[in-house]
Each structure stands twice: as C-alpha cells, then as structure tokens.
Design brief:
Structural class: alpha+beta
Number of strands: 18
Number of helices: 21
Strand content: 5-15%
Largest sheet: 5 strands, mixed
Helix content: 25-40%
Radius of gyration: 42 Å
C-alpha cells in the first residue's frame, strides 16, 4: 500500500557518468503496518529478474552507487583500493559537473540576451558533488559480495580432481590487522590438476592438526557428490609414510599416495648458497633442476625437423616433458655438483656455499628423493592443445602436479588484498571473491552470475526453439550436494571455538580425575598423622546451621564444640643463613701488572747481502789463434 513520498530529502547516486538524484515512495504493509522504502532489498527481490536489472543503482542509508561502477571494485589487483576508486570517481564527477554547468550557464546567458526573456530569472546551478569516504564504497562492495557469497562458495564445492596440491602461504594473512590478527596464521589452499581451487582456508598455523577438519569436509564432499577419489596428493612437507600428514590423508582416502612437491625440494637445496645475490646463483639452480630431472627424448625427435630454433625455444616450456631421475642417479649428480661448488669462491674469497650446513642440507634432500618420483603406472602429463610450427604439428603438454600453478596462485593471493592492511572481515571478502574469479578464469567462463545466465538461456530457448546451442555456454562446475564446509575466516573461527571447547573439556575432565584419585588414595588428615582421632567431623559442625523459613540461612545459637588444635605447620622456621651477606672482596686483579719486556726494541741489523761480489773471471779473453792451414 502506498504511504506517500519518502520524507527525507532526495538521495544522490554517484556514477562515472555524473551524479543524479532519485526519489521513492514509502510503502506500508497491510498486515504488520511496517514501512519499507521503495528501493529496499525486500521490495526489489519480489520483482521479476528482468525488471530488477532496470534499477540502476545500489542504495544505502545516505547515498547510492551505480551498479556498473560498483563492478570496478571487484577487480582483485594491487592498487584497486576504495580510496583509489573514490579519487577516480571524484575526477570523473567533477568533469561531468563542469560540462553540465557550462551548458546550463550558456543556455541561461543566451536566453538573457534574447529580447523576449530579458526579465527572466534562473535558479543557480547545483554545487559540485562531494563523494563520501572510501569506507562507504567498501561497505557497498561488501554488501554486493555477501549477496553472492553462496555462488562464490559454490565455485569451490564443485571442484574435483585425481591430483590434489596442498600448500600454505603466509604473505596474505600478514596484512590482517585488528582483532582478527593472529601470529603465525597462514592460508591453506587445495588445488586440483587443472589449476582450480578446491578450498581456501585461514588456519592458525601450518600444523597438521589445523587442517584435519578441512580434509574431513573435503572427503565428505567427495563421498556425497560421488566424485572420483583423489589418487595422488602433493604436499610441501611431511611426505614420509610415518608422518602425521600421510596418516591424516590415508584416514579418509586409504589408497592415496602422498608425494613431495619438487619445487620445495629445490628450494631446500638452494638454501645452501651463502647469498642469493651471487652471479652464479641462477646457474646453480638450473644445474640442480638438471640433476633432478631429465627431458623426454620424444621432444628432441619431434623438434628435430624445425629450423626456426628461436621460435622453438620460446615455446620450449610447453613442448617438453620432464621426468624425475632415479634416486641413485640423482644422488650421484647432486653429490658431484656439491663437490664442485664447495671449492668455488667469489672474487673476495668468500665461499659460494655455506660450508657449515651445506652437507647437512644435501643429506636431508637425498633422503626425500624417493618422495618426488612419479606414481607407478600414472602419467603426470596431459596434452590438450596443439601448435603448428613450419607445417609440423607439435603437442603442448601440461603437468598434472600443478606446482607452478599453485605458486602462481599464492603470488596473486597477496594481490587480492588491494591495500597494505585490512580487517579480517574485508580479508574474507577479498579472499572468496578473488578465488572465485581465479576459478572462473581457469574454466574460460563469464563472471555473470548463474541466475542471470540460466534465465537468459531459458528465455532464449523459449523464443528461439530451433536454436542449436545456448546463447551463453556455461563452462562451470557441475551440480553438487552442499555440505557443512566453511572457508576463509569462518574456518579459523570454527577452529578457535573448537580449541576453546576442547580446552574446557580437558580442564573439567582433569579436575574430575584429580578428585577421584584423591578419594581413592584417602590421604590421612593431620590428626591421623599424629595418632589422634578427630572428636567431631566437619559435617557435624555444619549441622549447626539451620535453614530459616524466610530469611535464608541463619546461624544457630548452639555453642560450637571445641576441636583439638592440630599441630601448626606454619610456625616460623629457623632463619637460614643469610646468603646475601657481603662476601669478602676478592683480590683486585686490575692492579697494574709489571710491564712485560719490550719486544719491539731494534734488533741488530742483519748482515748486508747486497755488498758488491767479487767480479767473476772474464771469459772473453782472446783465445790463441788456431794454426793456419792455408800455408
């Protein structure tokens, strides 16, 4: 029911095309008599979806923002902060205001010059609009993200894969400030072989105990939706069979194989270098990679006929397949490489490797060489595309273990937060929205919401029944059965609440156990220790308190029996000898010692060996003339 125009003044809606005003009516419910503004979310949701798109802005209590401009805040890159968006919008609004004011004043001046309207009066132009603070733009964007939070989390729930990559990142959580900041917090990420994120969680630390709930929820998602169980999982540490990480994953997936990501193994080996600024450091890392991997000889056979080697080199990273060397061969090559670089020194004499821990790093890395081998009978490379070079068709390969893809995601994860710091609430918004955009990009899909896409396809099929394909091809996750999984900050809060409840339960159970043990032991009291029996128990004394009918408990007037005083254990003990008494001063060793003999006295000059030596005999004397044979 219409209840008249909305009483407050006009609302200003900010837009890059210029600010405009909006006015609405106040609606009244006939049942509960509550009043709702015409642009409220409760009213807009009742309108059909096609008519909802006609409403041009997102309203708040004081201002409004154009829907198209709000989409610019969703780009998860460094520098796209609400403050920067406000500055850009302020500049565009000022330019639009200046142009409109110029046109208005020019028209007024023209009419004043006209002889027919010289006495006409004109209202003054509106003042230049002043935009609200950046926090207001952030709240508008957060409101939009919360409306689509279910769809964003759906991009994680529908991800499945046979190879799962697990890793932690500390860079993004370091930007959290305020009450949500926790020392040592990191971001746990699960990624499949296609580069799609299966889950992102904010955890207290990288310990295995903090990711147990995430693994359990992931296993529950696979079971309920009938997904294929993962066969291999790559981790950054704890890959041996006796580790807690392996026991955790085998608890929910008994046939899974846990492998070590080779990127982290190479990072451990490169830590033996004394400084990364050395000019030989890049060559050293390349030789470590060559010692661990070998190239598939099929690449050389396919590329042998290509003459343009420069073009071939630019695409080499997608044309080759690399396989890990056997552990014995890799150990031999790494040992030989270490022997060479341990003798290498810089120009200033500094060794290239840290000789104190280089051998221990190498020994530790050699023990993990069996963990980087590919699973038996499983090809870790897949070919989806082909390229033609000089008429020769070559296949482009992609690795299933996805170490480079996950490290690339961690690089962009820090850039999801546009500023240097944020609250935990904004961190959750940036994390979920940025990860959703990452998954959509990997699927070559559009960022339009699923509701709009499905409605467009239904209407398109109804209007054009003979159409052979959909108007928008939705390359998204399959339908799934929702579970009780939590992501981002909600996972951290769930872990904190669980730890608090476990701590309370442990304290109460410990207290009960202590009381029970004390009752079983029946420790004797002071009277029993001294061979005396107590004349009256404490329960007999408490019976002297009678329950008053109105005033609660009151003290009885009966005299209390006298109990034998137990021996006093708090009597002052004989004072121990004072250990802080001043000790006799030790002999002073700072007295001037006798001066040692001076060894800098001038030594006797050694004999001079530069005296002129006697001249040797001259061997250039004229020799006797030989006999003449020409006579």
């Amino acid at each position: 029911m219409d209840s008249g125009w909305y009483k407050p003044t006009l609302r200003v809606v900010f837009s890059s095309r210029g600010a405009f005003l909006i006015l609405t009516k106040q609606l009244k419910c006939e049942r509960c008599s509550s009043r709702v503004v015409g642009w409220g979310e409760e009213i807009i949701k009742q309108i059909p979806r096609a008519q909802q798109s006609l409403f041009p802005c997102i309203m708040s209590k004081d201002f409004g923002l154009d829907r198209l401009d709000e989409g610019l805040l969703g780009d998860r890159t460094v520098g796209n902060t609400p403050a920067a968006f406000q500055r850009r919008l302020q500049e565009l609004s000022e330019k639009d205001w200046a142009e409109r004011t110029l046109q208005y004043l020019d028209n007024c001046s023209t009419k004043q010059d006209s002889p027919f309207s010289r006495s006409a009066s004109f209202p003054p132009p509106p003042e230049m609009p002043q935009l609200p603070q950046p926090d207001w733009f952030r709240s508008i964007h957060a409101k939009k993200v919360h409306q689509r939070m279910v769809e964003y989390e759906a991009s994680f729930m529908g991800v499945q894969g046979c190879v799962i990559q697990v890793d932690h990142s500390y860079k993004a959580p370091e930007k959290i400030r305020g009450h949500g900041r926790r020392k040592g917090a990191c971001n746990l990420t699960l990624m499949n072989e296609h580069g799609e994120i299966a889950g992102t969680y904010l955890v207290e630390s990288d310990g295995v105990q903090h990711m147990e709930d995430a693994v359990r929820d992931f296993a529950e998602r696979v079971r309920l939706n009938g997904y294929d169980k993962p066969k291999v999982i790559y981790v950054d540490k704890h890959c041996c069979n006796s580790s807690s990480m392996v026991r955790l994953w085998k608890k929910y997936f008994p046939d899974i194989m846990v492998k070590l990501d080779t990127f982290h193994l190479q990072s451990r080996l490169s830590n033996a270098v004394l400084t990364e600024t050395s000019p030989d450091y890049p060559a050293f890392c390349i030789q470590i990679s060559e010692a661990l991997y070998y190239e598939d000889p099929g690449y050389l056979i396919e590329c042998m006929a290509v003459k343009d080697k420069k073009l071939l080199k630019s695409r080499r990273h997608k044309l080759i397949r690399r396989h890990p060397r056997p552990p014995k061969e890799a150990e031999y090559r790494l040992t030989a490489l270490w022997d060479i670089y341990k003798l290498k020194k810089h120009d200033n004499g500094t060794p290239f490797l840290d000789l104190r821990r280089a051998d221990s790093i190498l020994e530790n890395a050699i023990s993990y060489l069996p963990c980087v081998q590919y699973p038996d009978g499983m090809d870790m490379w897949i070919s989806k595309e082909e390229t033609v070079i000089e008429g020769i068709t070559l296949r482009l390969w992609s690795s299933l273990k996805g170490s480079s893809k996950l490290e690339s995601f961690h690089k962009y994860l820090k850039e999801f937060i546009p500023a240097d710091s944020c609250s935990i609430e904004n961190y959750h918004i940036y994390l979920i929205e940025g990860t959703h955009r990452w998954n959509i990009t990997r699927r070559d899909a559009t960022l339009v919401d699923n509701t709009t896409i499905n409605l467009i396809n239904q209407l398109h099929k109804k209007v054009f029944p003979d159409a052979s394909r959909l108007l928008i091809n939705v390359n998204r996750a399959v339908t799934y059965i929702p579970t009780s999984e939590t992501f981002g900050r909600y996972y951290l809060e769930q872990q904190i609440a669980k730890s608090a409840s476990l701590g309370l339960n442990n304290n109460s159970s410990k207290k009960e156990t202590t009381e029970q043990e004390a009752e079983e032991e029946q420790v004797p009291g002071p009277e029993q220790e001294w061979g005396q029996e107590p004349e009256q128990e404490l329960s007999d004394v408490l019976r002297n308190f009678e329950e008053a009918p109105d005033d609660g408990l009151r003290l009885s007037t009966a005299p209390l029996p006298s109990l034998p005083s137990p021996p006093t254990y708090r009597a002052p003990l004989p004072s121990p000898p004072t250990l802080r008494a001043p000790l006799p001063s030790p002999p002073t060793f700072k007295a001037p010692l006798p001066s040692p003999p001076t060894f800098r006295a001038p030594l006797p000059s050694p004999p001079t060996f530069r005296a002129p030596l006697p001249s040797p005999p001259t061997f250039r004397a004229p020799l006797p003339s030989p006999p003449t044979f020409r006579a």
